[in-house]
Amino acid sequence: MLQFILRRLFQGVLVVFGVSATVFVVTRLAGDPVSLMLPLSATEAQRIAFAQQIGLDQPIAAQFMRFLGDIVTLDFGNSLWQRRPAIDVVFERLPNTMLLIAAGLGSAVILSIPLGAIAALRPGGLVDRLTMSIGLLGLAMPQFWIGLIAILIFAVQLKWLPTSGMGTVAHIVLPALTLSLTPLARFTMMVRAAMIDELNKQYVKTARAKGLGLPRILRVHTLRNILVPFLSISGWELISTLSGYTVVVETVFAWPGLGLTAVQAIQRGDLFLMQAIVFVIAILIVIIGIVLDILSKAVDPRIELN
Amino acid sequence: MNSFLLQINNLEVNFDTRAGTVQALRGVSLSIAPGETLAIVGESGSGKSVTAQAIMGLIDVPGRISGGDILWEGQPLTAAKVGARHILGKEVTMVFQNPMTSLNPLMTVGAQISEVIELHLGFSRQAARKRAVELLSLVGISGPERRLNQYPHELSGGMRQRVMIAMGIACEPKLLIADEPTTALDVTIQAQILELLAELRETIGLAIILITHDLGIVAGLCDRVAVMYAGQIVETGSVYDIFESPSHPYTQGLIRSTPQLDVKDERLVSISGTPPGLLDPPSGCAFLPRCPAGDGGCDKPQSLKAFGAGAVACCKAGIDAWKEAV
Ligand SMILES: Nc1ncnc2c1ncn2[C@@H]1O[C@H](COP(=O)(O)OP(=O)(O)OP(=O)(O)O)[C@@H](O)[C@H]1O
Ligand code: SF4
Ligand SMILES: [Mg+2]
């Protein structure tokens, strides 16, 4: 187990290194960082001074070595926009994103299991067709659109909930709801399909012949068997949420998380902040992968960790 | 009140498939007394497993029980679902054919055995685990404490079948139904499992319904035999009578197509042809197209009638149908 974790961590370091190198190259290919970051009105002298200050006058190889050295110490330089270390900005905004993801994905996980299971009990039945239709609808609508519609209905028309920002519990409802719909649809369909599969297996016949009731069979026997595929799809969903969905949802609802910050950093040409965000997300994704593998092994002892 | 544990009367099971209604059981009647061992034999598709599933309440859509009844100690088993629960899994239990797939792969052996004990006997988890250890040693598994925490994939096929049997006898049932319990196992393991069943029958006074293809194991283990053909029982009788003087042409064919070690210079017969489709079975004798003794009189429905000490569904019961065919 320890060996596995060490090996995965080592792989993770390689991945993060690769991501760093890509970020480094792309940001420098994307145009002259100095003109990206300084206002158009900057004088030539100011530009040269700035380039020296952030080391852009050095040869590219030296710049990269310095970049690597810096990221080991989590030093991404000062955010130009916030005028303080970029990593501080990331760590300040990250918990807000985590909170949003926990509320959105968490509710999707909690709701999808009973919904999918009930649908699986009678494939083609009323509940099944209803969940499937709603699920397809959830998958068909882009999230920014769901978000806008939700704002229109619940915030503008009904005035039940605030339109944007963060502060009270009411503030998280709409963004979390918006974030949860697509994963909820995906999870429910997966749970349904996997449950139908499991319920047809021989061990379920054995459980029934033992006199166990259906609720217990679902809760104890089949649930455990769909947990491994469920873990892996929710892992994927978590990663896509972290690296994509939150950007859209946080922007729509002005939720001060990492996704919104990323948009703001791009708008302001804040190269250092952007690098810090990408780097932290890459690390998080590596960690999520390792945790998922360990959890899967805990559920299914037949899984070999390697 | 009668003395039978289980009685099945005129049971009919249909499967509604796209191609039409498969009449899997067409009026099956049988009964078993306490402590008795009954074999159900017959070729593939004759309805042996469906009979067992019907008893255990395992007939699922598209299947349905469309007629007849199943009585447990005189009371309908299918009627009161909740009431039946502490009969199914406690007093009547079942061991399935394939031990590789019959256990939940993600639950420990101990959890799967304890579960029934907690459910039906109301034991605490700890007491149930203690009982599970006893059961595992009773079915001949060494190091039972260690096995308790193992998962099915850590056990051999024979061991898993022993675990299934341990689960089957956990609540000291009155009847154990074993559907081809040894078909998926090696020959040596087969013998051990059958020996175990024979032993348990003596020690806990278990009645057993043994479903099998293998006439060889019937002779050694069973008291009585029911022969199935195309969804019906065509002959029942004591093991001795069935082997020594089979009365239904199909039974005669079955027995004379099985090589017997102790009979010298025996010529084997082979039953040519296949059983009728069950989508549209004939109303007369289903064996007619394959029967050497069949004639026009066999077009009429054949029902199980007392014959000798047993019962036979054949209007020419007792004739030596294969005399010419050898
Ligand atoms: N789920 C099902 N759908 C349709 N037909 C079925 C179904 N289950 C069983 N049958 C039909 O019922 C008949 C009896 O099947 P059954 O499984 O009882 O045979 P069996 O005697 O146990 O045979 P085997 O020796 O191969 O196990 C077969 O003709 C089969 O096609
Ligand atoms: S009823 Fe006729 S066809 Fe059927 S088994 Fe008897 S003799 Fe053969
Ligand atoms: Mg069968």
Describe the protein's architecture and organization.
The complex is a heterodimer of chains A (306) and B (326). Chain A contains twelve helices and two strands; from the N terminus they run ααααββαααααααα. Chain A has 306 residues and is an all-alpha fold. In chain A, strands 1-2 form a two-stranded antiparallel sheet. In chain A, strand 1 and strand 2 (84-85) form a beta hairpin. In chain A, helix 1 runs antiparallel to helix 12 (271-299) and helix 5 (86-121) runs antiparallel to helix 10 (214-252). Chain A is flat, with a radius of gyration of 24 Å. In chain B, a hairpin with a 2-residue loop joins strand 1 (6-17) and strand 2 (20-32). The model of chain B has no long low-confidence stretch (mean pLDDT 89). Chain B has two domains: 6-222, P-loop containing nucleotide triphosphate hydrolases (Rossmann fold); 247-325, no CATH class. Chain B has helices spanning 48-55, 81-85, 99-102, 109-121, 125-138, 144-148, 157-168, 187-204, 215-221, 239-244, 249-256, and strands spanning 6-17, 20-32, 37-41, 63-72, 75-76, 92-95, 175-179, 207-212, 224-229, 232-238, 305-307, 310-312. The termini of chain B are far apart. Chain B is α/β, with parallel strands linked by helices and 326 residues long. The chains are: A mainly alpha (306), B alpha/beta (326). At the A-B interface, helix 9 and helix 10 of A face helix 4 of B. The structure holds adenosine-5'-triphosphate (ATP), iron/sulfur cluster and magnesium ion (MG).
